């Protein structure tokens, strides 16, 4: 088995079972700290992690959890 960790949506939905659902990485905390903090705040307790680099490298949110802006 490879050492590659599967990326899943932090909300626990089964987004990987549905084809073509993009998973979004958190904004880079070094380049966009305010946006990174806004995402972490919006996610709340579902994030399950408090280390900034671990969140950025390992946590994803599937496309279903974003609002479409027109």
UniProtKB/TrEMBL annotation:
Keyword terms, alphabetized: DNA-binding, Metal-binding, Zinc, Zinc-finger
Family matches, as SUPFAM superfamilies: Glucocorticoid receptor-like (DNA-binding domain) (SSF57716)
Ranges of residues in domain THAP-type: 5-70
One Pfam family it belongs to: THAP
MF terms (GO), sorted A to Z: DNA binding; zinc ion binding
UniProt superkingdom: Eukaryota
Name of this protein: THAP-type domain-containing protein
Chain ranges passing through the membrane: none
